[in-house]
Amino acid sequence: MTLTVSQGEGLTVITVASNPKSRWPVLCQILGFLCYSPVCSVSQDIKKGQLKVVHTSFGIVQMLIGVFNIAVGIVFTCVGLYYNMYRIAQGPFWLGSVFLVAGIVCILAARFPNFCLVIIGMVLHIVSAALAITAVVLYSVDLANDHTEYCETYNSYYPSYYNGYNYGYGYRTPSPEMSRRNDICLHYRNLIEMIFRGLDIMMIVLSVLQLCVTISFCVLTGKALCKKDEDAKSVEDPELHKPILEDDTAGAA
């Protein structure tokens, strides 16, 4: 596909010659040509693969974090922790979806490096950084609260007699069977709390890792784009780099 631009008085005509052998529609061919045009070129560091491995690694890590978030949301929902999911605003699902998309875009930017896709990736990673901080807050809130109901206590007040007007209350001594059931309840309750609090701590650590990955991606990609601008300036203005001595010698001759 070739593109030509002709300008007149107040008029600019852009002519695009499509590829008849291509199976893609004309609109897709135009978008593909624009993305791979010199305007959308990127630094040689990205093209030659210096950052390809790094971007691919970042993408895989973010995809795994996204899958873990969605899996935690599914676990919370399946075991009936609806109030906990409501308390954290269904965060595991939409946070995991955004992290997963960010990882996919990161891998695409490494596989098909062009300016447009890299910019989209940077914007998406900035959003992911903000959501990673949000994830830390949400999982911290869930960590500070209980995930299970309290066990029934058998040594509390209970109605011991009725005097015709109201009930009298007193303490009762739990039977051995009641004590055994209460101990079993407390054991499994503490075990379940330990498991879910461990999941919350794991997701907080992964959210911090997500924040570090997004910041690293933006910093490395921003440096590569700035280097691309510097390379473009050095190519566009070769006269600025000619030595002054050469001009003096030419004038003397």
Automatic annotation (TrEMBL):
Gene Ontology cellular-component annotations: membrane
Subcellular location: Membrane
Keywords: Membrane, Transmembrane, Transmembrane helix
Ranges of Basic and acidic residues composition bias in the record: 233-245
Recorded topology in the membrane: Multi-pass membrane protein
Protein family (similarity comment): Belongs to the MS4A family.
Organismal lineage: Eukaryota, Metazoa, Chordata, Craniata, Vertebrata
Bilayer-crossing regions: 63-85, 91-110, 117-139, 201-220
SUPFAM superfamilies attached to this UniProt entry: MFS general substrate transporter
Protein name listed in UniProt: Uncharacterized LOC109105069
Top-level taxon: Eukaryota
Region feature Disordered, mapped onto this chain: 233-253
